[in-house]
Amino acid sequence: MLLQGTAAARFTRNPDPGIWAIVAFGEDEGLAPDAALSIIKAWSGSEPVDVTVLDDEAVRKDPAMFLDALEAVSLLGDKRILRLRTSGDKLAALLTDCFVAADAGTAHYEAKLIVECGSLAKKSKLRVAAEKAAKTACLHLFADEAADIEARVKSALGMEGAAIEADALRLFVGDLPGNRLAANSEIEKLALYARGLGRAVSVADIRALCATEFEQDLSSAIDATFQGKPDVANTMLDRLALSGTSGISILRSMQFEVHRMMDAHARIEEGQASPNMKLRPPVWQSEWPSYRARLQRWPVKRLARVLERIYDAEAQAKRAGGSADASVRILMIAIARAAEAAR
Hints:
Layout lengths: L1 E3 H9 L7 E5 L5 H14 L4 E7 H6 L1 H9 L7 E7 L6 H13 L7 E5 L8 H8 L3 E5 L5 H13 L7 H10 L4 H15 L8 H8 L2 H15 L2 H13 L4 H23 L18 H10 L2 H20 L5 H18 L1
Parallel strand pairs: 1-6, 2-5, 2-6, 3-4, 4-5
Helix pairs in contact: 1-2, 5-6, 7-8, 7-9, 8-10, 11-12, 11-16, 12-16, 13-15, 13-16, 15-16
């Protein structure tokens, strides 16, 4: 049985009682573990549960250990769940045999099974077997939309008796990492911060909570570069060098900002008058006039050339064993001077 997207997410909260095994997979590697936790909570309810965790390396070395974990009875009578973390089709043959045996009633498994994977192609042997099995659910998990993430943030804060301002919520969600587990960690951190705060979480709170000194220096260096302020960019690069920031990290952040500016151009071309809040991360209304002026200095064709130079600098850094400090500084100062001349 295959379930995708919203249906798969709903199943993790309320699994079909006739299902004994679940194969959860998605492009984001954090989705399957997060789904597994939700399924375990639904399966166990308020009762104690015995959870065994195995990976494909351990099972390949000793397949009997996997079968023993499925068949063993809990000494205390607790419910038992086996979590298997695997990748691709490494254990497809073994798992397919288990799915078929469970459907045919030729095997009795004491433990329920959750198989956690990354991406699985449509022709994956494991995916095909899970889709065909009557007592196995195959869950194709999709990354959250912004509205879904906002709802999760509000729910987490609500459990602490806290609230968040609309602008602060958009800023927080826009800055969240793409990985589900990493995002959950940030949401938990925000919920702990908001506990007992006595007011709604504000934009200032989000910036104070999420922005490290390194992030501020890096952001300032990139802003100065594209705003045409070579002296400021040089100063920020000195501070980043003292903190041990690698040149490749700076280049990757520059790539991200170029892509964000290209996204802004595309949205404006589509007729969106103020697409600032739809960018990732968003540009606040008070900052949008300055950002819009920056876009005028950097049309798409110029940004494409900048992107090529960034890629060249990164390739040069990799050939040099990761050291790119000098080439990064030269590139950023050159870009800043070009923006200064355009201004």
